[in-house]
Amino acid sequence: MPPVALVESTNASYHPxxxxxAIFVGATSGVGQAMxxxxxxxxxxxxxxxxxxxxxxxxxxxxxxFPKPPDEDGSWKHEFVACDATSLRNVRAVCDAxxxxxTRLNYLVMTAGGPDANSFTSAGETEEGVNKxxxxxxxxxxxxxxxxxxxxxxxxxxxxxxxxxxxxxxxFGARIRTDDLGLxxxxxxxxxxxxxxxxxxxxxxxxxxTGVTYNDGLVAYFATKHPIITFTHIHPGQVLTxxxxxxxLGWLFAPLAWIMKRVRMRIALEQDERAKYMxxxxxxxxxxxxxIYIRGECGDIVSAHGxxxxxxxxxxxxxxxxxxxxxxxxxxxxxxxxxxxxxSVAGLIRYTNEVLAGILKN
Length: 362
Prior knowledge:
- The protein is α/β, with parallel strands linked by helices.
- Helix content is 42%, strand content 12%.
- It contains eleven helices and ten strands.
- It has helices at 4-12, 30-42, 56-64, 88-101, 132-157, 184-189, 202-225, 242-245, 254-267, 271-283, 342-360; strands at 21-25, 48-53, 77-82, 107-110, 163-167, 230-234, 291-295, 301-305, 329-330, 333-334.
- It has an eight-stranded mixed sheet, sandwiched between helices.
- Helix 1 crosses helix 10 (271-283) and helix 7 (202-225) packs across helix 11 (342-360).
- The protein is globular.
């Protein structure tokens, strides 16, 4: 775990020669909000920061609090882009609009969750037929990453940092299992009468855990496909916000939920405190060469690997490649805290592309 003094001094030393361009998906509350605010403060507002979320009113208050540079040289901008990320069609439309007007992207940070994605009691599917936990915890993150990678590559080609970060539950190494990838069977088998009322839903818990481990697959896939870009899956720890500490286990387990909430409140940090560690990991110049990083709640590196710029990914041909089924290993490299195998990641990506093709075909 890096000392707090090192984290703070490293963040304070960030003074890029260019105006950084950052997109924060889900920054109208929680650690995403705090990260955007911290970057704005560190750059004295001289950054192009885009907050993507659902609440325009919350975003307006956040952006109003950003420091504003005295000059009007046009190199900085603070803006909000509305997007209900539970709809993958909405995500695609937002990405298309961004690519039409942006020339580069230094930081893509995805923290969005929402009440459905964090519910222990409710399990279901969106209007597009995607599991409500997985759409926010995984699918929208995959689509934002896939569609905005060209902007990250453009920044890297200009000699700038290029970093995509998934803030989820990194480092636990839960396995990516390729049976029932969309959790449709888990939802169908759940006792719908109990959902949201009596007790936790097994399908909901599976959705939360599965969404976390799919992020390992996300960063592994893109890191090997684009080795000059940095891809990070990081654990934010317990964050002292209503969404970060509230626990709803249904009325049957209400006493246990009360105990869990009190415990979480004791170990949680204010979102500004958590954000300093997340920002430390995001801006870390030691990761500039690209690669995959699995990080803990204090920005500490659980495992990492960089790839040569001419690295040939085994995922280049998902249909014909012969891939290892050994978990915790990425293309021959043991990765502590990593839950994928080459075969399971390939299966996940194939399934993801099928889902996206079905939804975005029109």
